[in-house]
Amino acid sequence: MIKLKDILNNVVVDAIHGTNDVAINKIEFDSRKLELNDVFVAIRGTVSNGHDFINTAVEAGVKVIVCDQLPEDFSQSVTYVKVADTNKALALMAANYYGNPSAKLKLVGITGTNGKTTIASLLYQLFISAGFKVGLLSTVKIMVDKVEFKATHTTPDSLTINYFLNEMIAAGVEYCFMEVSSHGIHQKRTEGLHFTGGVFTNLSHDHLDYHPTFAEYRDVKKSFFDNLPKTAFALSNIDDKNGAVMLQNSVATKYTYALKSFADYRAQILENQMSGLLLKVNGNEVWVKLIGTFNAYNVLAIYGTAIALGLESLEVLRLLSNLESVSGRFQYIVSKNNVTAIVDYAHTPDALENVLKTINDIRTKNEQLLTVVGCGGNRDKTKRPIMASIASELSDKVVLTSDNPRNEDPEVIIAEMEAGVAGQNYKKIVAVTDRKQAIKTACQLALPHDIILIAGKGHETYQEIKGVRNDFDDMKIVQEILEQLDK
What we know:
- The protein is 32% helix and 23% strand.
- The protein has 15 helices and 24 strands.
- The termini are far apart.
- Helix 4 packs across helix 9, helix 9 (293-308) packs antiparallel against helix 10 and helix 11 (349-362) packs parallel to helix 12 (384-394).
- It is α/β, with parallel strands linked by helices.
- The chain has an 11-stranded mixed β-sheet, sandwiched between helices. Strands 17-18-22-19-20-21 form a 6-stranded mixed β-sheet, with helices on both faces.
């Protein structure tokens, strides 16, 4: 049976009221999940404050309370541990509770605004194909070797991370690829994890509803690389203006990748088609089933990571050529009437611009490009007019609609998007609040050989409205509508 003193290893304790020799059941930060003899860690969240539930925890029969402010009244049957940062304490305690599983495999974290899911997921694919047992912690799903679990956050809470890492160890997993979000870093969810390597993709406008400034957003990402150990590697996109910044203070072994700059891993795009990319990577040609310049960067990140982890260069290129695209990332279908529908997760200005430019580079211009796009509610409002501006500038027609409106009025969100549309592009715009009807509108407007981009939700199979998640899958819906129109 594990004791409190064992899980407090490396945790800086300001004060303790009671004994640290007490045996505990498990760790929880959600008061609704507490059981007898648990440890309750009081977290100050964006919606609620765990300190308000300390009495509830005591009534549930917990043995230990971890908090940053001691209560006025103490229960004699409970040990109270005061720390400066309960988020950090939770992460370290979770790692200790599960026996520090991240130190028993090779864990690689991928961070940046765009590309995290694609890179992590394709690294998982590549290493599985190479014959290894592999883990994945991503926005789309969690994989323990070949067993799939549902994902709820880009970077899960620290208890969930360590639980699944421990499951991976039990399953004999050797490598794990993990998306690392700015929220996850800022909220200390990655504290106590032993990273073998870190990858930086790019940095652009996102999450400014959470981070007060772009500088803070950048610096939070940078802190991940600052904290990598000497034994780790740090791989950065040096074409991004923040790529060199990420490496500045890192003591890890530094590697770079680029399409335009001198770098350790460099590629040239020889062909860019709807069926894939022909690349020259460090002097060797490779065909991949991924589309667009942004995916050329993703391929380089995957290539560099695999080599840093010890795989042989030509073998990596062979494996790259067999990789399949990730769910909701430039997934496309072609109807009987030769209408191409593309579903992509692009939900930031930079990602939307990349996808639209990729389509425009590939198409003949004899067809229309119709874009269906919305912006999420209760998220960064400043990107709304920018997204609409980009869509209207780079598309022939645009259907503005709802994304996940959450607790906001979708028509207000659409109006805020419309404000960014330049006068000469007004005639391209139509607003359809209902997302399914918006997709149907685009399909009805499309002629043979036209291209429809449905942006923003990608792999998501729900739409969140007023706190309720309703079944909604962009790809299934567009398939059904096009099939009906083909009849």
